């Protein structure tokens, strides 16, 4: 694992476009503009769906049904709401994306809609939804299961619940369980993320007239670079089936997990801090449940 991490960092820092440590944060503003609303919609939707399902099932306590179904519905809601932001980020960051250098979100949005129609903002949405449904289910389900099991095993937490006081995790446990739930969700659904990125890269290949040589690793994930290697050059519409077939034909089953290590490592602190902030703000705002 150490050698893999060292190889990833060495490749970045020795590239022709060496930018030093600052280069590791290149495109972070665009990423924040995409991630912040997605997280907000995701967590808010989960609370709404979980409570709604609890009323519908008339259960006194949250069960796995509410956890996993609520998480799946929240993931799909956030994806449908915020997916165009992901497409815009990919197109802005990928040379050959059909946009002028230095284009902002507003410029990119106008150019894409005018030239390709609104549908272009949802290229790859099918695998994204297929990915986010189980990903959301695992992300929220695993965290809730770990949290419930931990609190149930501690007398102080059980006493607080009996007295009607909120039982909460320590900061360390919140970070740990958040990281574990994020890693579980990423590993479970990563192949669909690879297919989604591949579909977007196929689309860019078509609209650019088959130009090669893009530095697609800047599109946000290492899988984008993998996708570009095996584009056929034929002018055809990207589809779930064609993307899956190309990945399987050129890389086999391993291709669906190309770049999974850096992706999981990125998710660990992201998920941990997301859950920590979520729990902290719920306590600050006195949100029950």
Task: Give structural notes.
The protein has 289 residues and is an all-alpha fold. It has a single domain (26-284), classed as Mitochondrial carrier domain (Mitochondrial carrier fold, Alpha/alpha barrel). 70% of the residues lie in helices and 0% in strands. The chain is built from ten helices and no strands. The chain has helices at residues 2-13, 28-57, 64-93, 105-116, 125-152, 155-162, 171-207, 222-229, 240-251, 260-284. α7 (171-207) runs parallel beside α8 and α7 (171-207) packs across α9 (240-251). The protein is elongated and about 60 Å long.
Q: How many β-strand stretches?
A: 0
Total count of helical runs of at least 4 residues: 10
Task: Using the 3D structure, state the CATH architecture.
Answer: Alpha/alpha barrel
Radius of gyration: 21 Å
CATH class: Mainly Alpha
Q: Output the CATH topology.
A: Mitochondrial carrier fold
- Shape descriptor reads elongated
**Helicity range:** 55-70%
Domains (count): 1
CATH superfamily: Mitochondrial carrier domain
Q: Note the gap between the termini.
A: 39 Å
Helices and strands, in N-to-C order?
A: HHHHHHHHHH
Oligomer: single chain
Main beta sheet: strand number and arrangement? none
Structural class: mainly alpha
């Amino acid at each position: 694992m150490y050698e893999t991490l060292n190889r990833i960092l060495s490749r970045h820092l020795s590239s022709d476009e060496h930018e030093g440590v600052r280069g590791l944060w290149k495109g972070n503003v665009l990423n924040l503009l995409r991630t912040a609303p997605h997280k907000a919609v995701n967590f808010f939707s989960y609370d709404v769906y979980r409570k709604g399902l609890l009323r519908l099932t008339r259960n006194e306590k949250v069960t796995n049904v509410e956890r996993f179904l609520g998480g799946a519905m929240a993931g799909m809601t956030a994806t449908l709401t915020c997916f165009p932001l992901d497409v815009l980020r990919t197109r802005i960051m990928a040379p050959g994306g059909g946009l002028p250098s230095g284009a902002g979100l507003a410029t990119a949005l106008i150019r894409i809609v005018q030239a390709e129609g609104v549908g272009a903002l949802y290229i790859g949405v099918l695998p994204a939804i297929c990915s986010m449904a189980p990903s959301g289910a695992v992300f929220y389900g695993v965290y809730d299961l770990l949290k419930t099991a931990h609190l149930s095993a501690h007398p102080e937490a059980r006493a607080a619940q009996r007295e009607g006081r909120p039982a909460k995790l320590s900061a360390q446990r919140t970070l740990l369980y958040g990281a574990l739930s994020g890693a579980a969700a990423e590993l479970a659904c990563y192949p669909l993320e690879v297919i989604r990125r591949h579909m977007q890269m196929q689309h860019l290949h078509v609209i650019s007239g088959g130009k090669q040589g893009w530095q697609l690793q800047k599109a946000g994930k290492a899988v984008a670079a993998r996708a570009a290697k095996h584009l056929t050059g034929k002018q055809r519409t990207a589809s779930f089936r064609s993307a899956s077939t190309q990945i399987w034909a050129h890389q086999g089953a391993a291709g669906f997990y190309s770049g999974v290590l850096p992706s999981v490592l990125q998710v660990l602190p992201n998920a941990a801090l997301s859950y920590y902030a979520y729990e902290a703000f719920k306590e600050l705002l006195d949100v029950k449940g």
